[in-house]
Write a structure and sequence with these properties.
globular; 7 helices; two-stranded antiparallel ribbon; binds thiamine diphosphate; 4-stranded parallel sheet; about 15% strand; binds magnesium ion; alpha/beta
């Protein structure tokens, strides 16, 4: 957002401090942010609303919603999934970050989601499953979703949380904890950016 000139570079360093507009949950008080989220289960209801409005107004757009697997615990997500299928919202594509973690625990230990693809299919969605670290596979699935003219599409992207950073991969420690300067340098090195 700073690169787009929406907020200043200086504001970035206020992140997470008292009275900063940049908190852990995204707020529409920040210019350029249209919807406040962070309370799980709000993303898909917003997306379905936008898609319904686009159909009603014959607005030639597509709507993309990125969900986490933790959000698939929420009733509002499934209610919206029903609504999207009922209205044949083929202009709507959902991408799920399927990292099998939900902050401090595994998704399957907390509230079992599997078989996740079969659930979406039963709700009337076209389902693709891809390696979420393979950008070409995601691109292909996104293109195929745009060709589907009858129903919404969900792309389940299998991912590894902290991928590429040796001491972060699949670790629940990093949901809330920011890295120290030394850890950030090591992470950048692991990613070939150090
Ligand atoms: C409605 C709601 N309930 C509980 C929380 C607290 N909470 C924050 S993150 C999280 C788990 C989220 O799962 P996911 O997004 O899959 O996390 P990750 O993959 O990053 O571990 C929960 C329950 C919340 N933000 N909103
Ligand atoms: Mg997750």
């Amino acid at each position: 957002m700073a690169e787009f000139g929406i907020i200043s570079e200086a504001e970035i360093s206020t992140y997470g401090s008292d009275s900063s507009r940049l908190g852990g949950h995204v707020s529409s008080e920040v210019p350029g942010i249209e919807l406040s989220t962070g309370s799980l289960g709000h993303g898909l209801p917003y997306g379905v609303g936008l898609a319904l409005a686009a159909v009603r107004d014959q607005f030639p757009s597509r709507v993309y919603v990125v969900l986490s697997d933790g959000e698939c615990n929420e009733g509002t997500t499934w209610e919206s999934a029903l609504l999207a299928a009922h209205h044949n919202l083929s202009l709507l594509t959902v991408l799920i970050d399927r990292n099998r973690l939900q902050s401090l625990a595994g998704t399957e230990d907390t509230l079992r989601l599997e078989p996740l693809g079969a659930k979406w299919e039963a709700f009337g969605w076209q389902v693709f499953e891809v390696d979420g670290h393979d950008h070409s596979a995601i691109k292909l699935a996104v293109r195929a979703a745009a060709d589907e003219g009858r129903c919404p599409t969900v792309i389940i992207c299998n991912t590894i949380k902290g991928k590429g950073v040796s001491f972060m991969e699949n670790s629940v420690d990093w949901h809330y904890r920011p890295p120290s300067a030394e850890e950030a340098a090591r992470a950048a090195q692991d990613l070939g950016a150090g």
